[in-house]
Amino acid sequence: MDIRRLPWLRLFAGYTTLSLAWSALWLFANQAPLTMVTALNAVAPEVLFWLGWAVLTPFVWREAGRRWTHHLVLAPLAAFAAYGIGMGAQSVLYIVADALGAPLVGTLPEQLGRRVAAMLSLGVPLGCIVYALIVAVARSVDAVRQLGAERERSARLEAALSQAELQALKMQLRPHFLFNALNTISSTLQTDPDAADRMLSRLADFLRLTLDHDHRATVSLNDELAFSRQYLQIEQDRLEDRLAVHVEVAPKAREAAVPYLVLQPLVENAIRHGVGRWVGAGTVTIRAGRDGDDLILDVENTGPPLAVGGDGAVTQVGTGIGLSNTRSRLRQVYGDRASLDLTDTPSGVRARIRLPFELYREPEVISV
Q1: Is the pLDDT of residue 318 over 50?
Q2: Mean pLDDT across the chain, nearest whole number?
Q3: Using an 8 Å Cβ cutoff, are 169 and 332 in contact?
Q4: Could you give the CA distance from residue 9 to residue 7 in angstroms, rounded to a whole number?
Q5: How many other β-carbons are positioned within 10 Å of the β-carbon of residue 191?
Q6: What does the longest C-alpha to C-alpha distance in the chain come to?
Q7: 331: buried, middle or exposed (CB in 10 Å: 19+, 13-18, 0-12)?
Q8: Per-residue pLDDT at 357
Q9: Half-sphere exposure of residue 34, counting CA atoms within 13 Å on the CB side?
């Protein structure tokens, strides 16, 4: 056991309190008043006896982790040593008190003889009990410390695992998005090369913007809307007049913290399974606002309802990469406090994310 973990001041204060309590109990049992005589001849020896254990406690504490056979030998030796320290201190006290003319009962040999008799009759068994209590406390403290260290290690491992899973989900999301974006550009390349060139340029801008934030688990909603706007511009180049975009965000909600690229799969889903399958012009609307302690993010689109495949196979049990990925990320970060639900609206489908409202804070930059 590490004796450096012992609270030394509290240790001696505790033993002093214990010795005074023991002396008060002796005085009460013998109905003796607290006078100079009783203080020097009864209270002082008890205080010195317990302070002897205060001196020995660090050594007992250090040996507490050994096998029980070791303690069978060490316990009586420690009891004798505690009495020896107490009698040595009592001898010094007696000599000083005698030189000062303080009232003493008997001579020093008589006092020491009584202490030796008390040691052999009751002192050693009592000392062994005290020794066992010190060992029990030391082992309990060490067990609590080890339990705390184990919990801390478990928490660090759990946090590392969660971070690794989030990173894996982010890495899964990027190829999925790139596939959809490049597929859009490829389908436009033959019919409108200029539009495809603009889309490639905007895709490069989008990737540059997202890479600047790739190391962050969360971003401000304002930044997240900027990512979505870049992607929507690519889709507007492809769909032209068939796609209209509306953004309705409460001013205070713009500074909320949201998972990085959390809106991206919802926007992709709204276009691919909603507006993209709708005959005529369609609309994608992004709304954000606060509802009590929660932040609500809505992505609505015109298009076929869920009942007739408005979101393809995505909502069958959340098997699509985009939405199942988003649900997994929300679960990793917020647990049961966040949700993603799809519902029909009179004109199409709405995807709603509910998550705890927290203000975004820029990560600290550590200079080297």
Answers
A1: no
A2: 78
A3: yes
A4: 6
A5: 9
A6: 119
A7: middle
A8: 95
A9: 8
